[in-house]
Amino acid sequence: MTINVFAFLLQEHVGRLWPSPVNWLLVIAVIIPTTALCRRVGTDPASAPAVRRYWRTAEVGTVLFIVVISLRILSELGAGTWFLPASVVLHVIAGLVLTWPLVGLPFSARDRARKVGVWLDLGTLSGAAGLLIWHFVASEQFIGGQVTLPRVVAAVVIMGAGLNLVYLGAKVVLAGVETFARRGLYWIGASALIGALGSAISFLHPYQPQGNLLVLVLPFAAYAAAVGARVQVVETATQARRAPRGYSLMPYVAIATVDAMVVYHNVWDTGDGLLIDGVAVVLTALVVIRQLIAFRQNDALLARIGLQEKRFRHEATHDALTGLANRTLFNERVTAAANDAGPDELVSIVLIDLDDFKIVNDTLGHATGDALLVHVAERMQAAVRSADTVARLGGDEFAILFKGVEGTDVEGTLTRIAAALLAPALIDGEPMTVRASFGVVDGRSGDDAGDLMRRADIAMYEAKERGEGGYERYQPGMETRGAERSRRAAALRAAILEDQLVVFFQPVVTLPDGRITGAEALVRWQHPIEGLLGPGAFIDVAEQTGLIVPLGTWVLRAATREAASWPGELTVAVNVSARQLGDAGFPAVVAAALRESGLPPHRLTVEITESVAVGGGATTENLQGLRDLGVRLSLDDFGTGASTLSLLATCPVHQIKLDRSFIPDGGSDAIADAVLRMARAFALEAVAEGVETAEQAARLTRLGYERAQGFHFARPMSAAALRERLETAAAVAAR
To answer: What is the pLDDT, as a whole number, of residue 109?
Structure first.
């Protein structure tokens, strides 16, 4: 291309250097590489289908131009008079082929306001471009006052071609096609502008250079198209994409250009000042309208941003489930309240934990648990003042901030909340009540918010330790008891890992002869310092920390291993917690313990409480899974929980154990008798536990009980002591 330009300019000054066809051959030499690049993009499988279609069309256009130039060469060689007209017609067709795909490019604007803005930008640009084309090109047709039909047609064609090119250029700049390389589109637009406008001028402008202007125009157009193709190849290979600009400089460039024309007219009096001033006024009006639309768009955008920021702030500071303040917002308000409180003003913080809430999730499912949390949040919010802050800190932990409220008023509010939570509510079709433990701490101006939260947490755990709900106010020294709980939990975790636990067994006997039929496994902790500890010293800690699950698994495996060595059909009973039974993999844990020990499934009895049995969800599935294994199921402490006839009808148990509180001891034996009758009605085995005297054993025998356990028959004993007792009983029976 450089040789072509240099040769054209040199010939304009010194005359023809070689025959005219040589100039056209140089043009073909520039177009051929462009055709090759177009073909490369058009057949590149990495490019999008729309991109390949465009460049295949461009390839057709460049090939047509090679044909056009070939016809020009034949015409200048005198091969025939029809070659020149044919080349002109084919030239127009080739130009349409190259520019037509640009017409189909969609604008990036999607909503109505943006589309109006785009068209206003186009109008502004078209007005400025039309003025420039008229003043510097089309009006040249009428110099000297000659107005003829050919000159009018030429001016119209030049104006039409120029405005069409402006439209195509705007399409390139504002196109919303992500698959095209945007810089490539700019080069394509430049190619169309150079080729089409240069061709129109070369055909129609009255003043022409000595050589054919197309010899200069076409190489530049071909070069721009080649660069566009190359950019597309590179950006397709690197997956490079530029974000579209959020605004357009076109209307401002157009106004600046027309303003320059106004200045130019006023300085040199070009003769078409009225036209220039009129266009300037119209374009200014278009830009003003465009700015008004942009202002409305900006206002709407700012409003949306404001709403989004408000929503994001709310989401960042509020719990998504309950709508209460979250931990972040609560801490902020505690800090602000402590800093802003007056000298004698109290700031009270209450931390609240729902007792046994995990059982709800484990047995009824998380959806029911979430519904219960929403219910709790509503009850708490309804019980406090609008100035108080109720927050959900996470899980089943809530908090309340009172400012300027006396201690007795805080306690009264907590009493109302506790009563409201204990009032039955229908949650997902299930009547439910909630018991909560409250930890209260009072602070004053200048107190550290973190210290206040820590003390409230300590007080809450003190309330929870009592196991009966209610509130506990922080007192100095509570940290020591909390630290002791933490140490106990750590020691228990080590005890499980280091086999410091032992299993004792309390026999279950027949009435009235006292023959052993099995035993209940009871865990003990052989503490290296404190000695042998009963379950009361560590079971609560295990429940609170979740250690009850590995603890229960250890007891299950140890009990089944020991029972496998017992003679005959003696059974072993193992107590299971709600957390264990709520685990979907619990039947597999039991199956593994049976498999490792070799104990037949029917010799294992899993004991559960009534509150666990009514759990539903995963608990019900696990109970059925245990029954399918062949394991026996027993309802422990029967009569103290949610005892109903429907429970016995639906819960797949084999046995019920009468709670020790109903064992007849000189009073009425009506409850013991009723429980036995229910057991027989449902074909269940009845066992009386907690039998401590011969009189109790005799009365149970008269009622018809056939199984019992308690201190009257035997206290819990080590595995070795039980084996010795079994051997003695076997020797006596053999005599």
So the answer is: 54
717 contacts 504 by C-beta, under 8 angstroms: yes
Give the helix/strand (H/E) hosting 19: none
Q: How confident is the model at residue 87 (pLDDT cuts 50, 70, 90)?
A: confident
Question: Checking DSSP bridges between strand 632-638 and strand 604-609, what pairing results, if any?
Answer: parallel
Query: CB 624: neighbour CB atoms within 10 A?
Result: 14
User: Residues 73-83: pLDDT tens digits?
Assistant: 787 777 767 77
* pLDDT per residue as tens digits for the range 391-434: 999 889 999 999 888 777 888 899 999 888 888 888 877 778 88
DSSP three-state, residue 207: coil
Kindly report, residue by residue over 508-532, the tens digit of the pLDDT. 999 999 999 999 999 999 999 889 9
- DSSP class of 471: E
**Dihedral over Cα of 403, 405, 411, 417: its sign:** negative
Average pLDDT, the chain: 78
User: Going by C-beta distance under 8 Å and a sequence separation of 6 or more, which residues neighbour residue 606?
Assistant: 573, 574, 576, 590, 626, 631, 632, 633, 634
Is residue 612 within 8 Å of residue 619, measured between CB atoms?
A: yes
Highest mean pLDDT among 56-65, 239-248, 694-703, 723-732: 694-703
**CA 85, CA 6: separation in Å to the nearest integer?**
28
DSSP bridge pairs for 175: 107
- Using DSSP, state whether 47 is helix, strand or coil: coil
DSSP 538-582: THHHHHHHTTHHHHHHHHHHHHHHHHTTSSTT-EEEEE--HHHHT
- Nearest-angstrom CA–CA distance, 43 and 54: 11
- End-to-end Cα separation, the chain, in angstroms: 123
Cα angle value 361/364/366 (rounded, 5°): 45
Of 141 and 728, which is predicted with more confidence?
A: 728
pLDDT of residue 629: 93
The one-letter amino acid at 347: V
Q: How is residue 570 written in tokens?
A: 């003696």
* C-alpha closest to that of 551 among 493, 618, 607: 493
Of the candidates 221, 144, 224, 145, the residue with the CA atom closest to the CA atom of residue 184: 224
CA 85 – CA 102 distance, rounded (Å): 27
Q: Which residues pair with 572 in a beta bridge?
A: 519, 604
Report which of 720, 377, 389, 730 is spatially closest to residue 570, judged by C-alpha positions: 730
Can you read off the two tokens belonging to residue 312?
């994001």
